[in-house]
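DM from R.C. (forwarded with permission)

"hey, sorry to bug you on a friday — could you get me a structure for this? deadline for the figure draft is monday and I only need the backbone to look sensible"
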Amino acid sequence: MDMKRYLSMMVYCLGALNLAAQHAGPLKPGDWVPDDLVSRHMVNYGADSMHLVDFEGKAILLDFGTTYCPPCITSLVKLDALQKEFPNNLRVFMVTHESKEKVTAFLQNNMTVKGVQVPVIAQDTLLHDLFRHITLPHIVWIGKDRKVKALTGHHYVDKENISALIEGEPMDWPVKWDFPYDYSKAMIAFNGENFNTVMRPEAWQYSIVTNHIEGVVWRQKTTVDSAAKQIRVSAFNIPLLKMYLSLFGYIWEHNFQPAQVVLQDVQDPAPFFYDEHLGPKAVWERSYTYCYEMTFPMGLDKEERNRRIIEQLNWHFGLKVDLKKLKRPCWVMVVSDRDRLMRRTLFSTEAGHSIKGLLNAVNKIPHHAPMINELNLEESVEKSIRLELTTGLFDSFEALKKVLEPQGISLEVQVREVESLWIEPAK
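My reply, with the result:
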């Protein structure tokens, strides 16, 4: 290594150490971002380093993510469009720990991000230390005055909020704190001031239900505690429907859809379904996600543990929740003209919705009649079909029926037995 390159590296390292010394802890909303901040290993930028002082008079968004995180990729595309909409007042950077070579190859080869012009700070450690997080994407909002305005997920990134950042308006949003949490340890323990190690019983059981715990990443976990001779089942920051369905053996919005949920005499659906029209999902999650932890004897099987957890949750929330097969009016798809339908295969020049995509789109609508596929086609044939549809049709039976009929599908209302999650207030 020549002396010039060695001295350059020493200057950079000393600068980074000096910056780290001044800001030993992570930055939070209201803190100043240091003006002497320098980031190296730039991609999509035109230079190898970025100096914060170069963007005086502009708001800055730091988008922490990776090339293998689907929400991060979606966020990057969205931020690229916003950067182009506010070229004189906003600067957006993606920040990743991944290598410069990997990021470069990703931007060149991934069709989703083709043409994205957002610069990427690769191989980063400095910004990750200043803005610590666990879940991705992690968005840092920095005002023109170089103060941290907010720490959020990607749900807050839209034109209105970008305008608020640029104009210096207050950003009173929930702070995205991601705290390291040891999920292997119990949520509660005996009070050491009242119980010494001799006084504590060898075996004991408990159940606890709480509201949202700020900063803890959602998780469900079963722990075998051999020393205490018990099994501990825990859930952290989980929505009610996802919580109940996991106990019945289903995965919410994977093999069990919103149209399968029946709210009987429930006045307020907000605790069960997120409505994007009412604000960011992070705000809804703070109000309507919950935690529980319950312990059971070692010999109790999973089915009985889950039954007891459901019973405890029902008592806590004042609900009666059950999984049952119900006869319900459904939207049923049947073949009306096979020849017409076969023209909708991938060999057709027209692109569109798959059969599965249509089913998912309709069945994801809360309070909707379930949609049933009775086309009775071979799997390979069904996968090749593409239907010509517009998104506004999915909640209108007559409109959808009218569009499907010329494509060889008849849509009918028929009663079918449907696996349903029945929810009603406890009597």
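R.C.: lifesaver. Residues 3-22 have pLDDT under 50 and may be disordered.
me: no worries. The radius of gyration is 27 Å.
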